[in-house]
Amino acid sequence: MRLVIAKCSVDYVGRLKAHLPLAVRLLVLKADGSVLVHSDGGSYKPLNWMSPPANMRTLSPDDVDLETGVVEQWIVQSAKTDDRLIINIYEHISDSSHDLGVDPGLIKDGVEADLQRLLAAQIDLLGDGYTLIRREYFTAIGPVDILARDAKGATVAIELKRRGDIDGVEQLTRYLELLNRDPLLAPVRGIFAAQQIKPQARVLATDRGIECKTLDYDAMRGVDDSETRLF
Amino acid sequence: MRLVIAKCSVDYVGRLKAHLPLAVRLLVLKADGSVLVHSDGGSYKPLNWMSPPANMRTLSPDDVDLETGVVEQWIVQSAKTDDRLIINIYEHISDSSHDLGVDPGLIKDGVEADLQRLLAAQIDLLGDGYTLIRREYFTAIGPVDILARDAKGATVAIELKRRGDIDGVEQLTRYLELLNRDPLLAPVRGIFAAQQIKPQARVLATDRGIECKTLDYDAMRGVDDSETRLF
DNA sequence: CGATGAATGTCGTCA
DNA sequence: TGACGACGTTCATCG
């Protein structure tokens, strides 16, 4: 990994075009050819970047005719697409390289899959007498997150989200339409379950006769005793 | 901006939990308190991070009881949420700070807004005799990208996307439902226009009587002579 | 490979 | 500030 602090301007040409005026920035060059251009603020997203795999050519004013004041030009070309990043360097402020080795990678806990596993194990959170039919119930248009049966024996399709938005309601609506064509299952009700449900999504769901259920992941995790410290 | 190369392990606790085992990584500390943890590969997304605004406390083994081998512990706490990043440093390899100043920011060209402007100017791309009613036609459930009239005088609602996906078709469907309740406008047809339309989206749109139109941004840009070199 | 859906999404805009 | 939609979304999974 090479780290460069430099006064530079940057142009991107590819899916769109973008331009960064002259300023001092951090340039990160990774082993796979990817390049990040960061300022001293904002979140993790760089001002501009090139995704791997990519190749970089370095041009000097001796080789090519460059704009006045440019001491070096980097041309970063994507190996797969015709996206290209052009960095004009006006002043090198710092330049260092480091050998980092391969990273063992990230271990996560608490994503939608975990939520689904927990709700399947605690299906009675949805109401007394609920029983699990199965998780990831496959249909022609994709898998229903959870299929269950309520106390009266009626089928219930559950769509799970961490954040409940309109498109999640649309998704569940499509599933319900399809499932209700199956005489063995019909009538099928829908439950939209999420840690947080947006007002518009709640309105749309209610309007379509879909029940909304807010989930408390921490509480669900606390109940599940198999869920003892991952790390 | 402070750049640290260090052998470290990282834990994130917040909306979910995540853990990074011991390895050599780049740690970027920005002026607004944000922190990025990068490996020497992958795209621009860090392995782990903290969004601004945030505050960092540095603990040493003299102050607190730390794990064996930890020479320093950073606790990065989000100022707004209770998200927290804990970085255990086992070895400092490099440490430098640089004053970057404020960045002038990015200038873009070719996003959906540009596409909309071009299509409004070249509305006859949709068919002979089309005329523009207006862009960003406001409704109770959001703005319709473009409202036009066809050669026969019928109203047409156009949803524009760079990449046409199912949710775009759903969006247009909601607009059409609403617009068709207005006796002054009804009947309103829909056109789903995008640079690229996914097969499933095309099927859904066609099934609902919505016309699909693929747009060539470069060609549209070439026709529009006001669109002379932005930079 | 392409298609599909989640994401600690992030980022802008506008009420 | 919160809701909403775009994004060079990126990312993993699955066919």
UniProtKB/TrEMBL annotation, chains A, B:
This is Endonuclease NucS. Pfam families: NucS_C, NucS_N. Its EC number is 3.1.-.-. The keyword Acyltransferase does not apply. Cleaves both 3' and 5' ssDNA extremities of branched DNA structures. Keywords: Cytoplasm, DNA-binding, Endonuclease, Hydrolase, Nuclease. InterPro entries: Endonuclease_NucS, NucS_C, NucS_N, NucS_N_sf, tRNA_endonuc-like_dom_sf. One of its GO terms (cellular component) is cytoplasm. Residues 111-231 form the Endonuclease NucS C-terminal domain. Belongs to the NucS endonuclease family. Residues 2-104 form the Endonuclease NucS N-terminal PH-like domain. GO terms for molecular function: DNA binding; single-stranded DNA endodeoxyribonuclease activity. The keyword Hydrolase applies. CDD domains: NucS-like. It comes from the Bacteria. It is found in: Cytoplasm.
